[in-house]
Amino acid sequence: MTVKAVERNNVMEQEIILTEDQQSVIDFAAKQDTHSMRVQGAAETGKTLIAALIADEFALKTDLLGSNNTVGLITYTNTAKEELNRLTKNVTATTYHKFAKTFLRKNSIDLSYDVFSSNLNEFREEINDTGLNDNIICDEIDWIFTKGIKHYEDYTIGGKTIQGYGTCERTGRGENRFQKNSQIREKVWRVFERYNEFCADNNKVDFRDVGNYICGLSLNGELEPICTYLVVDEVQDFSENEIKSMSLMISNKKNLTLIGDLAQSIHQKLFSWKKTGISMSKGKSFLLTKNFRNSKEIACVAECLLKNEYRLKEHPLDEYTPMDIASEDDCGKPEVLFFDSDDEEIAHVSARIKELRDQYPEESICFLYRSKKTYSTARKISYLLRDIGYEAEYIKDHERTPGQKIFWTTMTNAKGLEFDNVFAVGINEKVMPELAEEDDGYNAKLNAERRLLFVTMTRAKKRLFLSSSGTPSILLAETNPFLVTIDSYSTADSTEAYRKQWMLLGERRKTTRTEFEKTNAKISGIEKEIEEISEQPDDSAISTDALLTEVQERKLRLEALLEKVEIELGKVEEYAQWLCGQQIDYGEALQDQGEVLEEEERPQFLFPDNAKMLILGETGIKDNDMHSVFKELKFNRDSWEHKKYEDLKKNYNAQNLIGSYLSYSDLFIGPVPHKIKGTEGENSLVEFLEKHRDDVPKFQVNKGNDGSLVRISKSKLKEMIRYSDKYAHMRNMN
Question: Which tens digit of pLDDT belongs to each residue from 704-731?
């Protein structure tokens, strides 16, 4: 997407040139008579612009169809509404709740909206009976509304049994507190019923219950639609029933267009494309991946953070939209800053803002905070800036004074905005998320905070700064350490959050190692298959050339897969080393995570670049052939060493292997003498190495099916090299 100034009739206008993917969406909207379109876009891919252009295309159709045909364009917040109205020419955008109220009035229903938390004293007796504080009861009522639950007992609709509140699965915060069929659920339901009675008596509906209310009305009879086409932007912010209610507001359900990005779902409504209930046939779903705002460095760090949610299987991978970075700006890596106290964070961030303002006077700067817990930090930054002559404007409803360059607001308010430079302050433990790890609903809250931090990071066009004081949020530990610059101004162990990453790291190492081994085994099997085919006589009934071609093609595909797995493995292992360099005691971390790392009981890459791979014992490979194997895998003669059976038997001391990280990266073990000097009474060299696993380089043992040591063949040597730390390190560095 390119925006350039053009002159038309002596007036300068903006001309927008769409990408091929964007244009295909608009072309589809222009050609089809009926539409159920889904546009799934990554961050900053022009989704809002596409929503406005689609609505304008539909408006042209309705002009031809007559005055009874109209176009609806809705979004979740007033901020997003204003942005849509800035972009569209022929349609006026509005929020869902205002659109719904207009729809209800057209159906002779005049209601006002209310919020449960504003009327707590009306139900004080029932609330006190639950024994819960106001915050918890409000969260639970909100959960009931979000799930669209209308009954306590199970009930049947069209032969299908629907679970009521008493028996339904409770996920997220409250999962442990509100057990099925418990007395606490009964008491909460009495509060919920009293609130619904209050709303009915006062001709009101709860703000969060509008979608459920409209869906309920449809069961009692036909509703008069309000438009012919409906375009929904930021669809990830809506609940399942709100989206279902939208299909009731249009004359043809096939004319509903949904546009959004799951990654930016920050309202904990558990949005999923599959939950929309809108069937999309082939050719009606579009993917936008090109990011036009963020520098490559910022986008990569943000995407790395986001992928953790999918790696942890919180959502299906097909719900995730990858980013293709269009910007060529290179303003340096994002910075992660650790401080001991709020005062140090305030002073440093204020100084950096002043520095940027002086150096780049035309660039915008915004510092963002999460919630009330860190409001004072942001406010004090604004005061300190004011004291040194720099006014910072608080953003409310996305209104900004023309010419103003420094702003501050909440992370949530910043959604939809962009700035050249962004500071996210107070990313601390028990702030993002506010719950402790042992608290009920911690994981659900952590996922929502991860997406919010992703949205916060993608507000920055050129430079991004993430800071914490005291104990940092674990989310900071999810940023890839090789993609950011880390500055610690803390005298304490400011990297405590990284310790928690060992559990995730161990899982990743185990999974990646398993995938690596399986792929390698398949390649070894294919190599044997190639050898067998090559040995077939020329007069064989089977064409050896055809077989070789097919098998070699399979090998190439597997080797391509292996390369990808090796790169991931290299990153994981190097991440482990980096963590160790952050003053984290590996033994303590290992003890914390139990058996997660299994045989991987120490971090890798603790060797210099000139460390060698050491082969111990018989191989059955000639020296020249061995050199060829290493050369094929891009290693020169100085990268390996071979201690033959006779060498080990005569004068080798196994004690030389203890602490030999500076000399050797890996050990490959074939048949060796039963007794070797320095094995401390152990029955074999292998048992000696097992005993001192923490103190020797990584080792691989070539065993046969019966457990005995067997000679290392060419194919086995290749496999060992590919599985080595030296090879993984080399691949990662390249």
Answer: 878 889 999 988 899 899 888 888 777 6
Task: State which of 499, 533, 568 marks the end of a domain.
Answer: 499
Domain count, the chain: 5
pLDDT tens digit string along 406-418? 999 999 888 888 8
Q: How far apart are the first and last CA of the chain?
A: 33
Query: At 50, which helix (H) or strand (E)?
Result: helix 47-65
Q: Is 69 a residue whose pLDDT tops 50?
A: yes
CA dist list (Å): 124 to 152, 191, 202, 205: 21, 9, 18, 20
Q: Identify whether residues 673 and 571 lie together within a single domain.
A: no
Q: Which residues contact 668 (CB under 8 A, 6 or more apart)?
A: 613, 614, 615, 616, 699, 700, 702, 712, 717, 720, 724
What local confidence, expressed as pLDDT, does residue 222 receive?
78
pLDDT of residue 15: 62
In a domain, 352, yes or no: yes
Q: What percent of the chain shows pLDDT beyond 70? A: 76
What average pLDDT score do residues 400-428 get?
91
Taking the CA atoms of 529, 530, 531 and 537 in sequence, report the sign of the dihedral they define: positive
- Over the Cα atoms of the chain, what is R_g? 31
Cα–Cα distance, 407 to 393 (Å, whole number): 5
DSSP state at residue 506: H
DSSP state of 318: G
Structural domain that includes position 144: 113-202
The pTM of the full predicted model, rounded to 2 decimals, is 0.62
User: Is the same domain home to 190 and 235?
Assistant: no
Same domain for 44 and 122? no
Give the mean pLDDT of 503-520: 62
Residues 6+ apart with CB under 8 A from 395: 366, 407, 408, 409, 413, 414, 417
Residue 703: half-sphere exposure toward Cβ, Cα within 13 Å: 8
- 496 has pLDDT over 70: no
**Are 343 and 488 contained in the same domain?**
yes
At residue 163, the pLDDT reads 86
What three-state secondary structure class fits 712?
coil
Cβ contact 374:428 at 8 Å? yes
Closest CA to 576 of 509, 516, 512, 517: 509
User: Long-range contacts: 481-484, Cβ < 8 Å, 24+?
Assistant: 481/575, 481/578, 482/571, 482/574, 482/575, 482/578, 483/297, 483/300, 483/301, 483/304, 483/333, 483/334, 484/301, 484/333, 484/334, 484/335, 484/336
Q: If you ran DSSP here, which 8-state letter would residue 165 be given?
A: T
State the pLDDT confidence band at 35, using cuts at 50, 70 and 90.
low
- As a whole number of angstroms, the distance between CA 246 and CA 239 comes to 11
The half-sphere exposure of 620 on its side-chain side, counting CA atoms within 13 A, is: 13
Distance of alpha carbon 293 from alpha carbon 324, whole angstroms:
11
157 burial (CB, 10 Å; 0-12 / 13-18 / 19+) is exposed
Would 168 be classed as within a structural domain? yes
Question: How many other C-beta atoms lie within 10 A of the C-beta of residue 357?
Answer: 18
- Backbone phi and psi for residue 382, each to the nearest 5 degrees, phi listed first: -65, -40
Confidence of residue 592 (pLDDT cuts 50, 70, 90): very low
Q: What is the DSSP letter of 473?
A: P
Q: How many degrees, rounded to 5, is the angle at CA 474 between CA 473 and CA 479?
A: 105
Is 119 inside a domain boundary? Answer: yes
Residue among 575, 582, 585, 606 at smallest CA distance from 725: 606
Residues 544, 531 share a domain: yes
Q: Taking 90 as the threshold, does the pLDDT of residue 283 lie above it? A: no
365: in domain: yes
- Over range 41-52, report the average pLDDT: 87
